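Supplementary notes (optional reading)

For those who missed the lab, this is the record we used. Protein: Protein-S-isoprenylcysteine O-methyltransferase Ste14. Length: 197 residues.
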Amino acid sequence: MNMSVENAGQILWVLGIVAWYVIRFPFERRARRTRVVVNRRSLTDRIGLGAALAGMAVVPGIYVATGFPKAGDHAASAWGVALGAFLFFAGVWLFRRTHKELGKNWSISLEIREKHKLISGGPYSLIRHPMYTSFFMLALGQALLLANWIVGLAGLAGFATLFFLRVDKEERMMTDTFGEEYRQYMDRTKRIIPYIY
Ligand SMILES: C[S@@+](CC[C@H](N)C(=O)[O-])C[C@H]1O[C@@H](n2cnc3c(N)ncnc32)[C@H](O)[C@@H]1O
């Protein structure tokens, strides 16, 4: 087993998660100060958020800190880790772009804020959910950076749960709020992969 490649994967994952949190923190603080006018947070959405948090932070965090669970460990390859690092940091970059673009309109859950504007520029010009695309990139990166099948795939399973529980509800909330403007936006964009889905 090549320990140095595995350690490199874990260190890169930790660095990416720290960068992720540094980007997210100011938006969480600002969101607390901006009034919510529509709240569609539901039990299903909380379950999805819990699954994503468990799969992308708690399970890999415990693995990196303690090596648990040992079951599922596999040998890491340098190419796999390099590809994982590329996907993970490209995901962090897209995550930052989407936060900058959404600005005061960002929410962690299904909410419309006071003076909410429909954003359709930058990464939002091709896909309606580029932040969710960035999460899928982070989850794929995690699967390649962490040399354990259970821990690696927990991120994909956790985020896919949130995505599929949420996406229809989010689009319904946006259509209810922005009406024809959002319907037209839907007609010219895909969900998470430009020109495909
Ligand atoms: C966690 S953010 C994710 C945004 C988007 N689904 C994405 O993946 O980039 C969720 C919140 O963003 C807001 N939102 C989603 N799409 C938006 C858009 N095109 N313009 C403005 N706000 C949007 C909604 O208030 C929603 O509750």
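If you only remember one thing from this example: The two ends are 39 Å apart (CA to CA).
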